[in-house]
Amino acid sequence: MKVLAIPASNSHKSINKQLINYATSLMPQHDVEVIDINDYEMPIYSSDLEEAYGIPEAASSFFYKIQQADALLISYAEHNGNYTVAYKNLFDWATRVNMKVYQGKPIIMLATSPGPGGAKSVLALASGSAHFFDGQVKASLSIPSFYENFDQDSRTITNPEMNAKLQAALAVLELN
Ligand SMILES: Cc1cc2nc3c(=O)[nH]c(=O)nc-3n(C[C@H](O)[C@H](O)[C@H](O)COP(=O)(O)O)c2cc1C
User: Fold this and answer.
1) What is the pLDDT of residues 162-173, one digit of tens each?
2) Which residue segment(s) compose the domain that 118 sits in?
3) 147-167, pLDDT tens digit by residue?
4) How large is the angle between the packed helices 57-68 and 85-97, nearest 10 degrees?
5) What is the CATH number of the domain that holds 143?
6) Residue from 135, 153, 82 nearest 111 by CA
7) 165 lines ligand 1 (CB under 6 A)
8) Gap from CA of 122 to ligand 1 centroid (Å)
9) Predicted TM-score of the model (pTM)
């Protein structure tokens, strides 16, 4: 399967990007592409801008990137219980191309944060609303206390229970 992996953070040190990189290393049987949402930077969405200049090219390229994939793997960073502004902005612009941003694709949703909450709020928000955007959430997993469960040197999840949960979440793609 062609899997598009999206760390939903614009931080260059993003722990969600680290999690995505580790998760994708566990999927050698798939053709995986990890994107950087910084490559899709756009002005903050405004209906005035849209009326004046239309939808930026980056929104269409993001939409078509999803179209070319068989499945999506997204890891959400949480800011104040919500999406990062960077991802929300990209997503909002993409919905102006077509509201069905996820285009019926199966999605595995991950989220992590340094705290014990593990970005559960944004994960619930993303998984609970995916159907409005024609996304089929096949699995979702929050990894709490990132720095306690992920070893920075080996770049792997060291907690066996978390590893098993991650493997199980990723394995749902084999059922498609
Ligand atoms: C403005 C701001 C708000 C945050 N709010 C939350 C939050 O609501 N829940 C949480 O678990 N972590 C929160 N954090 C901490 C982030 O989880 C942490 O910065 C994490 O590294 C973000 O993921 P990333 O590294 O993939 O960008 C917040 C951080 C910032 C800067």
Assistant:
1) 999 999 999 999
2) 2-175
3) 999 999 999 999 999 999 999
4) 80
5) 3.40.50.360
6) 82
7) no
8) 10
9) 0.98
